[in-house]
Each structure stands twice: as C-alpha cells, then as structure tokens.
Amino acid sequence: MTEDFRPLILKPIFNDAMIAEMSLYDRFRRAEEMVANRHPRDAVRMLTGVVEEEPNHAAAWELLGRAYFAAALLEPAEKAFRRLIELEPTSGWAHVALGLTLDRQSRHREGAVFHRMASVLDPDQDRRPRLLPAEESPA
C-alpha cells in the first residue's frame, strides 16, 4: 500500500533581532523560501527591510509584491508592483502582475491597461504569471 506523504514544513520563527542580524542576501533568500513554503506574511517581514536598504533592487520588489499578493494584501502588492514597473518599465511580467492585482481589487478597467501593455511588451508571454509556486498555479 503506497501513501502520499507530504513533507513537514514548519513555520519559520524569526524575531526582529534575528532578522536585523542577517545580511540582505540571506533575508532575500529566506523570503524566497517563505513564499515558496506558503508563509508570505513572514516573507513580507523579511523583505520590508531589504527594499528599505536597497530601494532600487527590482528582484526584491518583485518578491515583495508576490508575497503581498499571496497574503491577499492587495494594496501593498499594488504599490510593490508599481515600484517594480518604475524600475523595469519593459517587464511584461510586472505589468501582468499589476493587472492581476488590480483585477482582484475589482478595478478591471485599470487592470486591463496593464494587461494590454504586457501583451505589447512581450506578445509571446504566457499570460499567467507565477505569482504562486508552479504547483499551485491554475492550469
């Protein structure tokens, strides 16, 4: 008899002092793991300091936006994705992510503008960005 076992993933426990002692790189990598392991609010705690110290780090803004989106914190996600678009205006993915964030807030007209811009920037892009880990994304 075979059973499917899911790996045990414990909730990360980091206090503010521990986070402050970590390097920016380590905080970013831990936040990536937290988003992948469905702990987006903990990832937000890690990433807010990263984007404060490195405000022009596009990857940190993208991950922060994904974490906010996964935690259903849509207004902060919108701000993070808008900042990402400021840093990388030709990123089709960033435009789609902002469009989806606006759609989830029932702001479909605003979202449509960013979806159209994404299709112009990258016409071959799959229109389903990976805001969630691949195994959770809709097919």
SSE map:
Elements: H1 16-21, H2 24-36, H3 40-53, H4 58-70, H5 74-87, H6 92-104, H7 108-121
Helix pairs in contact: 2-3, 2-4, 3-4, 4-5, 5-6, 6-7
Largest sheet: none
Shape: globular
Count every helix, treating DSSP H or I runs of 4 or more residues as helices.
Answer: 7
- The helix-and-strand class reads mainly alpha
- End-to-end CA span: 30 Å
Strand residue content: under 5%
Q: How many E-type strands?
A: 0
* Helix fraction bin: 55-70%
In angstroms, what is the radius of gyration? Answer: 16 Å
Write down the secondary-structure element order.
HHHHHHH
Low-confidence stretches: none
Mean pLDDT: 87
Structure notes:
The chain is mainly α. Helices cover 63% and strands 0% of the residues. The model has no long low-confidence stretch (mean pLDDT 87).
Key terms for this structure?
globular, mainly alpha, 139 residues
Summary, kept brief:
With 139 residues, this protein is mostly helical. It has helices spanning 16-21, 24-36, 40-53, 58-70, 74-87, 92-104, 108-121. The longest helix is centred in the middle third of the chain and has 14 residues, at 40-53.
